[in-house]
Amino acid sequence: MTSERQIIFKTKGVKQTRSLGKKLGKFFRKGYVVLLNGDLGAGKTAFTQGIGEALKVESQVNSPTFVLMTVHEGIIPLYHADLYRLTSVTDVEDLDLVAQSSEGVLVVEWPERGIEVLPVDHVSVDFETLAIDDERSITVTVMGEKYGEMANKLEEYG
Ligand code: ADP
Ligand code: MG
């Protein structure tokens, strides 16, 4: 059976979302797949910038909407994909994201474009906007044995 662990964070302002990305990014290892769900402007890219800080990447992390995937060299490479523009699952399948990113951490914005062809075991981060403008609810779910270490780290917050 796959193990699952979930924890809900709340942030106020973009800096806190970036910090959360940095805090969690320190637990990310080679081969991890991190799927970011949430509307436009929810904070997915901001969170990824924090992951970039944790991995000490050299280049600036921003929205890769027009290139589908950007690679940032760091302690381990950060593969940042944004599938927003894709409409068919085959397009996502053709990108072969998991194989392409096997040497680093794969972070995907708009994974729902191809959830069928992305791994069942992954770290999922769900962003929700709240009634107050600059507040976000951020739910982190860790699925699968491979992420046991990460799940244990999360437990420390729980
Ligand atoms: P996405 O990648 O999900 O489309 P971005 O990270 O690019 O979103 O943008 C999030 C926007 O929301 C930024 O303009 C940011 O300043 C604003 N914002 C306000 N409050 C927050 C928050 N708590 N966390 C993240 N972003 C926030
Ligand atoms: Mg984005």
Brief overview, please?
This protein is an alpha/beta fold and 158 residues long. The protein is built from 5 helices and 7 strands; from the N terminus they run βαβαββααβββα. Strands 1-7-6-2-5-4-3 form a 7-stranded mixed sheet, covered by helices on one side.
Can you describe this structure?
This protein is α/β, with parallel strands linked by helices and about 160 residues long. The protein is built from 5 helices and 7 strands. Strands 1-7-6-2-5-4-3 form a 7-stranded mixed beta sheet, covered by helices on one side. The protein is globular, with a radius of gyration of 14 Å. The mean pLDDT is about 95. Bound molecules: adenosine-5'-diphosphate and magnesium ion (MG).
Low-confidence runs (pLDDT<50, min 5 residues)? none
In one word, what is the shape? globular
Ligands (ions, cofactors included): adenosine-5'-diphosphate, magnesium ion
Query: What is the average per-residue confidence, as pLDDT, rounded to a whole number?
Result: 94
The end-to-end distance, rounded to whole angstroms, is: 22 Å
Following the backbone from N to C, one meets helices and strands in this order, namely EHEHEEHHEEEH
Q: What topology, given as strand order, has the largest sheet? A: 1-7-6-2-5-4-3
Number of strands: 7
How would you characterize the largest beta sheet?
7 strands, mixed
Give the DSSP E fraction (strand runs of 2 or more residues): 25-35%
Helix content: 25-40%
Give the class from helix and strand content and strand pairing.
alpha/beta
The radius of gyration computed from the alpha-carbon positions, rounded to a whole number of angstroms, is 14 Å
Q: Determine the number of helices (DSSP H or I, runs of at least 4 residues).
A: 5
